[in-house]
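Quick one, tokens below. Sequence please?
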């Protein structure tokens, strides 16, 4: 069995068969278009950046709102967790 036995050549198709074939090709696209894929990736980057920016802004606001004593206690706590994490 050969390929020509399975598929009718385009030059032997009638107009109706050609139109149906075109319709089938147009509606059965499985390849993602590059522009659409890039748009989705760009949106993902924007949302991840905005989340990081919001987190940084929130942390900075918290640090600015702290008094000097609170900052000193916070730094000591951070230093204590650093030593525990490294196993020293």
């Amino acid at each position: 069995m050969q390929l020509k036995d399975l598929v009718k050549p385009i030059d032997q198709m009638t107009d109706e068969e050609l139109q149906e074939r075109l319709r089938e090709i147009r509606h059965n696209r499985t390849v993602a278009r590059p522009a659409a894929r890039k748009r989705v990736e760009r949106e993902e980057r924007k949302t991840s950046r905005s989340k990081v920016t919001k987190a940084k802004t929130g942390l900075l606001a918290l640090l600015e709102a702290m008094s000097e004593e609170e900052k000193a206690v916070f730094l000591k706590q951070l230093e204590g967790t650093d030593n525990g994490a490294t196993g020293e």
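Helices lie at 3-6, 15-27, 34-65, 68-86. The chain has a mean pLDDT of 80.
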